[in-house]
Design goal:
mainly beta; Methylamine Dehydrogenase, Chain H; 3 helices
């Protein structure tokens, strides 16, 4: 039981060091650059996923990155084994072909024949398997073609895929920039059941040809019923006028526009990502992308919040350039918060946290230049992995300076393309004496009283229900009794 109560070690430190609670040290989130050492030699990291192929959980990353984990064999897609710290490719890896190669999405899915890792992007083949151009599946041992029918003559990419059951059994719902996939005219929105492709309405309007696309999907109920939300760069969906955001009403089986129009500041500006987050006023859906104005007026924003009735810009009064590339919700130990990454968002050093309605660089400094490639650093992907938030991009260091004031913020730490923020464990609840789900209930009180009665003035450890040495000084006495009573009275 003692190991479950990190707060006891803290109390013991206070007693041993002779300091007051106000002067005690607290856990602070910190950088972990393990994944980015040695990191990548070129390109960037964007999509990430966890998957167990039967040999243990591995961490998968993709993008345009080359030399992932320091190996020239690991290009565009690689996996990390946390038990050994080793990086490796999948089979013979991803083949580039005659154009630039990159991975856009990695998703585990079971089509009924066993779970596989589905990989989308722009590449000539996976494992040199015929027909695996730009969309393939890894079954844990070999690559498989998914029959998408893509060629490298015209760049066609799937940007998102989501396993959904919308009344016809679970399928993989696909979003991208293609007109045809698997021989089906789908215009950027399609379904895949493991064997064949299907349409999802008539797709998006493609007035700009390959420049129009759907970037990401989200499944959420804003109170008016379940809907699948789509964002990207388009002017209509299934014949319905909609600018860069739209939703599919599951009950009605129809696409629709919603809320005020988010008017892009440029004809090629687009939306890229969704996240559901509760800022204290209730759950809401957030969308990120390139600069736009809510309703076409007022301030330019990169992120907006849909509360079920209205769109509201996020980051009032702030000027943030560039494009938000991903959003994620994560708890660093201080409570859930919304995070964003971006390209050309130098005002917040490409990696920021929403604090009291304002975007602030993560740990005071975000991720930094120089870039792995190009003229400036960027961050493209976020992934929550247990107690850490992983960020991927083309940066070469984290920390170092505040982008607003230019002031130094610690010493820059090398990290090429990958880094993580380590969070703090939740504070221990001293009133949860017996470790049952109902912390601080009458059973905790009775169990503590029984153990305290049996163990008073004895050396720890002692107790059949828990550890009555609440303050961790190795002796069970009246001070432990008072500490427990205070915690029980406070509710934790």
């Amino acid at each position: 039981m003692q190991e479950q109560h990190g707060g006891r070690r803290f109390v013991a430190c206070v007693a041993a060091c002779g300091i007051g609670l106000g002067a005690s040290a607290q856990c602070m989130p910190s950088w972990d650059t393990t994944l980015g050492t040695p990191g990548i030699s070129g390109g960037y990291i964007e999509p990430m996923a966890l998957w167990d192929d039967g040999t243990g959980m591995k961490f998968y990353v993709g993008g345009s990155a080359t030399g992932i984990g320091g190996s020239s064999a690991n290009n565009y897609l690689a996996r990390y084994d946390p038990s050994t710290g080793a990086w490796s490719r999948l089979g013979t890896g991803i083949q580039q072909g005659t154009t630039n190669a990159y991975i856009t999405r990695i998703r585990p899915w079971d089509d009924g024949t066993g779970e596989k890792l589905y990989v989308a992007g722009q590449f000539s083949s996976a494992g040199n398997v015929s027909g695996s151009n730009s969309f393939a599946a890894w079954n844990g041992a070999t690559w498989e073609s998914l029959g998408a029918g893509f060629t490298q003559a015209v760049v066609r990419t799937t940007y998102d895929m989501m396993a959904l059951d919308l009344g016809e059994g679970e399928k993989l719902y696909l979003a991208g920039n293609w007109g045809t996939i698997g021989g089906v005219v789908a215009n950027g929105l399609a379904t895949f059941d493991g064997e064949s492709y299907g349409t999802w309405g008539n797709g998006i309007g493609l007035p700009q040809g390959a420049n129009a696309f759907v970037a990401e999907l989200a499944d959420w109920d804003d109170g008016s019923g379940r809907a699948i939300y789509a964002c990207g760069r388009f002017t209509s969906v299934d014949g319905v006028a909609a600018t860069n955001v739209a939703r599919y009403d599951v009950a009605a089986g129809a696409w629709e526009a919603f809320g005020q129009r988010l008017v892009p500041d440029g004809s090629l500006n687009n939306m890229t990502s969704w996240a559901v987050f509760d800022d204290g006023s209730g759950p809401a859906l957030y969308v990120g992308g390139q600069q736009f104005r809510v309703g076409g007026v007022g301030q330019k924003y990169n992120v907006a919040k849909w509360d079920g009735t209205n769109w509201t810009g996020v980051g009032a009064g702030q000027t943030i350039s560039g494009r938000v590339t991903d959003l994620a919700v994560w708890d660093d130990g201080s409570g859930p918060a919304l995070y964003m990454v971006g390209t050309a968002t130098y005002e917040v050093n490409y990696f920021a946290k929403l604090v009291a309605g304002q975007w602030v660089p993560v740990l005071g400094s975000g991720v930094n230049n120089p870039p792995v490639d190009g003229s400036f650093a960027s961050a493209f992907g976020l992934f929550v992995w247990d107690d850490r938030l992983v960020v991927g991009g083309n940066f070469t260091q984290v920390g170092g300076f505040d982008p607003v004031t230019g002031a130094g913020v610690g010493t820059p730490i090398p990290a090429r393309g990958l880094a993580a923020v380590l969070g703090c464990p939740p504070e221990a609840c001293l009133a949860d004496y017996n470790g049952t789900p109902d912390a601080g209930d009458i059973l905790d009180f009775l169990d503590f009283m029984q153990d305290f009665s049996d163990c008073t003035n004895m050396a720890a450890p002692c107790g059949q229900f828990g550890d009555p040495d609440v303050n961790g000084d190795t002796v069970i006495d009246i001070l432990d009794f008072l500490d427990f009573l205070q915690a029980f009275s406070d509710g934790c």
